[in-house]
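Appendix B, record 7
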Amino acid sequence: MSTQHNVLQNNARMNRLGINISRAMTGLVSTILVAILLFLLVKGLGRMSVEFLTEAPVDLGRGGGVFPIIVSTALLCLVALAIAVPLGVGTAVYLTEYTREGWGTTIIRFGAECLAGIPSIIFGLFGFMLFVVWMGLGWSILSGGLTLACMVLPTIIRTSEEAIRAVPPIVRAVGLSLGATQSQVIWQIVLPQARNGILTGVILALGRVIGETACVIFTTGISIEMPSSLFDSARSLAVHFYLLAREGISLPMAYTTALLLTLLILFMNSLAAWLMPRRQG
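Structure tokens (predicted):
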């Protein structure tokens, strides 16, 4: 009895130790996040205004606002998601609904995981050689969007696949038993059920697109002007912040741009976190 009691006491102590370590790590991460936000708020909030969001940059970004850069960032996101979402969701549907587990699906998943681990600057070099040079698109929003689509495709594939797999098999069986075809079951029953999970992956991919720098510099360029088409060079918010800080153009404007960029990414991640429990429910 004493030996069993000692074992239970040791297990309880180890359990408390694990909980305390987890709390300490969570507190450390939360403290770092709060410190970054407070730093950016102190440094950048003073210049944040309606004019900053609605006016064009002046004197290479030393004054004015970031409206053309916001438009360029939005266009980059639209192009990237317009390409990556259909390809990613379609691949996830194929892997989960139309194929059996085998060497083919293993190769596809392994390739997607390898793509997810490639540094963004490698995607930038790839996009530069393929889209900018070989296809002759030049430094443009289209080149940047195509490259970013390749970069976020693994994220959308994996999250969509997991969301589709989470739909109970009985849902598919009921649809088929009522006379629906497999395609009808997938598009009218399974995908609507997996909608929130798929949206979570899309939002996470969107957050990565907004915050990307190296990939965009190589393919989109650094033009500060308002783009008139997808074939124009442009710069994203992340690139604008990098150039303002790296070139020493204006640190106050760089801090304000960084604050705007951070708030956008936090909003995207918060929205994704809000959708996750709804998907599970």
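Remarks on this record: The chain has two domains: 2-47, 52-280. Residues 2-44 form the longest helix (43 residues).
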